[in-house]
Amino acid sequence: MEATAPYRQREHLDYPRLTMFQMVERIAAQYPDEPAYEFYGRKTSYGAFLSRIERAARAFWAHGIRPGDAVTVCMPNTPQALDCFYAINRIGAVANMVHPLSAQEEITYYLNVSASKMLLTVDLFYEKVAAALEAADHPVTILTARMQEELPPHLAALYVLKKGRGYLRFPRTPHLLWSRFLKDGDDAVELPEPTFDKDRTAVILYSGGTSGTPKGICLSDLNFNACAMQVREALGMEFRTGLKMLSCMPLFHGFGLGINLHAVLIHGACCLLMPTFTGKTYARMVKNKKPNFIAGVPTIFDALLHVPELQNADLSFLSGMFCGGDSLPVELKRRIDTFLRDHNAHIQVREGYGLTECVTASCLTPRDEYREGSIGIPFPDTVYAIVQPGTDNVVPNGEEGEIILRGPSVMLGYLNDPEETARTLRRLADGNVWLYTGDLGHMDDDGYVYFHQRLKRMIITNGYNVYPSRIENAIDECPEVAYSCVIGVKDERRMQRVKAFIVPAPGVSPDETTKKAILDQLRRKIAAYALPREIEFRQELPRTLVGKVAYRVLEEEEERK
Q1: 89, 200 in Cβ contact below 8 A?
Q2: pTM for the complete prediction?
Q3: Structural domain range at position 500
Q4: DSSP code of residue 240
Q5: H, E, C per residue of 9-37
Q6: Of 162, 177, 195, which residue is a domain's last?
Q7: Which residues pair with 491 in a beta bridge?
Q8: What tens digit of pLDDT does each residue of 189-241 get?
Q9: 280 contacts: CB under 8 Å, gap ≥ 6
Q10: 3-state SS string over 434-498?
């Protein structure tokens, strides 16, 4: 039997001049009867999905939404959210994507900065959204969706009994139910043909983080379509009808919208929609629905290692597991890969790298090769370089510097922020516009990229540069540790000292004996100047809205002391 040659992705792809809606429309014409998405057992075919999009688009048009107008989508992963997103794109409007768990003042900010004319939310968040609208600087129409309207009858009844009863009535603030809104477009509203413009803002996503003002990231149809097509090429395997993706990552996040949803839908596969995440529900979906692909952040996969539902499960149906959104510790990757092998999945977890400024991933570990610490090779038509921080000077292979990249998925710019756009997107001597990521890393001689950490996270202690992610990796390898976060805190003598926050592994006591055991192991792996001067045990660490450890929250706590 001949050995299979290592997969090599194409360097260049042809990107059609189509909108995101048109990409879905094209696949729906080919496979009208294939399932586009499934929501708690209820399947919607591509043909039906297209009809739902058109109906929603006519309703928006009937309510005066026109090309260039912004509509805010403040929703979990539900059918109404998908219908709404592609309907907005269908008529050339701008989808302003907002986390439904955002604070009231944040929602007001998102509405004001985008000048949104309408907003769709789910009934569970109606009162908060209505309060946010009262502080908005312009009128905004609220559309309210009900989860139970998309559930199978038996689950809808159970949902109303458990959660929905309190949301069947609303305050007297004017609002419009999504189901009623759709009927307003049924009176033969004629829509203009979609038009493609590579420089048009189609989607606004917001930068993550826990402090400061979020930046609106303006992305085009080409950005999303290119990323989706690049993902399929980088997978090195079929991505087609009949296959399923467990779509847990939220659609207000680049990873969720770009890979868990759009990349799936334009290739005819099926999205298994999950509106909320818990380890138990995720494990049950994996076991019962048997998705071929799962993609998420490290915390999701770490949770899967500990849920009883998967301990004896056969995971041979998995064709791909992809990790992004945060750095994947080497030790956690080893544990995940061992777990996959022990459960008959003949794959490894593949780490990607990217940022919302290029939709999401732009680099991925190859299917058949792994280099420890590497985040893989760039997608087709995406070029990486490493420059000396603060300059445009490319450093030699193997030398650390700031990661910069260029390609068709790079954003148009930041919303209403030309100065920050000019700092992040720079036209260099080669004539190309490069995205300066603010991340440190290096490349080897074969073009494999290695992420080190955010430039802003670097700790300077006694004149030495200390990189928290490297220390976290060393800490997480200790058997006493579940996970950790390292920050720099003020120190009169050293300028900063290294402090580690550690969540102990199950059954481990957070005491001095454990602390000593961890430090003893660290001394063998990291330099003395980089050792944590302080260790604080906690039952859990703060998270951002997308599940990353919120190191900035810990930094702010220390600053207030």
Answers
A1: no
A2: 0.84
A3: 458-560
A4: -
A5: CCCCCCCCCCCHHHHHHHHHHHCCCCEEE
A6: 195
A7: 495
A8: 789 999 999 999 999 999 854 335 789 999 999 999 999 999 999 987 778 89
A9: 307, 309
A10: EEEEEEEEEECCCCCEEEEEEHHHCEEECCEEECHHHHHHHHHCCCCEEEEEEEEEEECCCEEEE
